[in-house]
Amino acid sequence: MTINSIQNWFTQAFGTVTLETVENWFVYNPKEPLLFNTGLFLGMFLIFYFVYAFLRKTFYLRLVYVIMFSLFFYYKSSGIYFLLLILSSVVDYNLSGVIYRETRKSWRKFYIVISVILNLGLLGYFKYMNFMIGTYNDLFQGDFALHKILLPVGISFYTFQSISYIIEIYRKEIVPTNNYIEYLFFVSFFPQLVAGPIVRAKDFLPQIYQKLHLTKDDVNNALFLIIGGLLKKTVISDYISINFVDRVFDAPTSYTAFENLMASYGYAIQIYCDFSGYSDMAIGVAMLLGFKLPTNFRTPYQSASITEFWRRWHISLSTWLKDFLYISIGGNRKGSFAGFLFPALFFFGLIIWGISYSSVSHVPLIIAVSSLIVFGLTFILSKDREKTMFTNVNLLTTMLLGGLWHGASLRFIIWGALHGMGLAVHKIFVEFFPNKEREKNAWDYIWRFFSVLLTFHFVAFCWLFFRAKDFDTALQIMRNIGDLEFDPQQWLVIIQGYKNVFWLMLAGYVWHFLPTGITRNMKLAFDRTPLVGKAIILGFVYWIVYATATAGPQPFIYFQF
């Protein structure tokens, strides 16, 4: 790292500093959002943090200061839509107060329904309006024009956060904030505003009222998370995405079966490094401000079952869905109209799809009927059929809506349905083959190894629908992989042609599967490094980010949700 390279990095990050450049730093540009992995954010955060340190002993002044920076951060990501965040927060804050003061049960229920409808209605318009118009036009030969709608960044995250606040007040788990400023601080807190983790009010609000206290361990943990997140996001995820994965998924027929297979593995590690990298940075930045955000990922590809996977992947979302959706529609206790409605619609649509393609091929209809039979068997074979039926139906509803939360597209619904059915199949499997409490032997370790391998490949298969630009592309990639032939010579040529990509994919998987003892020792070594050394490491990481960047900073995948 030379003086020239530092100057080049500064020029790329901030541009040649002119009056116009300075103006661009503060004006919204949809092509250049303010991201954690940019030099502009680093510079602005250092200035912000310097002032924040002087305000640490104040309360409302500090809250207002963070709110202003948070709104600016959101403005740089979504432009004028930061006003939508303010409007939504004003409505939710006042409705929560009404619900808290209301003593009549029927009126409390009425107000909570109104609040949820307003929040989901706002989310639905921006995220699902064109999907509904397109679906209506396809089914009924309509000619309604699509709306020109720009999806505000992170609207799904702060909407769910607002809903959790109001529902927790309705359930009397928390009391409302003392004033609007405290609530706006909670809902607009910039580290997790645009891509999570989704923060629960009962976990976050008490921290606002605590005395700000930042320990040496907090600083060490924060810097370790930020550095790790930067490396995962910018060095691994962005590089393999731009230089390999995106190319294959955009035109799968232009690549060999082996390249399609490797791109599938590549996307599995790409989305993990992208999303967990962002979460790590968000948690680290929040920690530097004196706030603890929940862990969002715990090495999910080490899971030995799909149930375990959802306890390790996007934990804040899976917890939210369990507490506010799964339990609300009956959980494992009872059935409900909403619980049965969505699985019924899904299987009905699946069978109609199979019938419509029956003149071309019987495979879609076989898949549709087989899926319905498999799902039915998950509770028909159970000892407690009724309870298992309620559980599995509610699980499938939760995962279908979880898939729809990610995007208004058939492929996201299929992705959610696959995970929902996987959870149901695993539950009946555990019922027939329960885990017995005994001392582990060699067979148990072998069994876990193959369970992890199977779970990973099921998840990677589901990612095909998640990543592909449409349903047909996902099917095309599967057909391409199905044509794979054993040809080591061709594979070697491909690996040599993409050697940097494959090295980084390998690094990502090795990092993910590192034993906890090694990562713990790495953390201890980092903790013992002097503060100046940590600053140098952080600066070096930002230089690596600049050196490996091939097309500028890339937005986080979950920004679109």
Automatic annotation (TrEMBL):
Pfam annotation, one family: MBOAT
Membrane-topology annotation of the record: Multi-pass membrane protein
Main location: membrane
Keyword Cell membrane annotated: yes
Keywords, sorted A to Z: Acyltransferase, Cell membrane, Membrane, Transferase, Transmembrane, Transmembrane helix
Stretches that traverse the bilayer: 34-52, 110-129, 149-167, 337-356, 362-382, 389-406, 412-433, 445-466, 501-519, 531-549
Keyword Acyltransferase: yes
Protein location: Cell membrane
Family that this chain belongs to: Belongs to the membrane-bound acyltransferase family.
Protein known as: MBOAT family O-acyltransferase
Lineage: Bacteria, Pseudomonadati, Bacteroidota, Flavobacteriia, Flavobacteriales
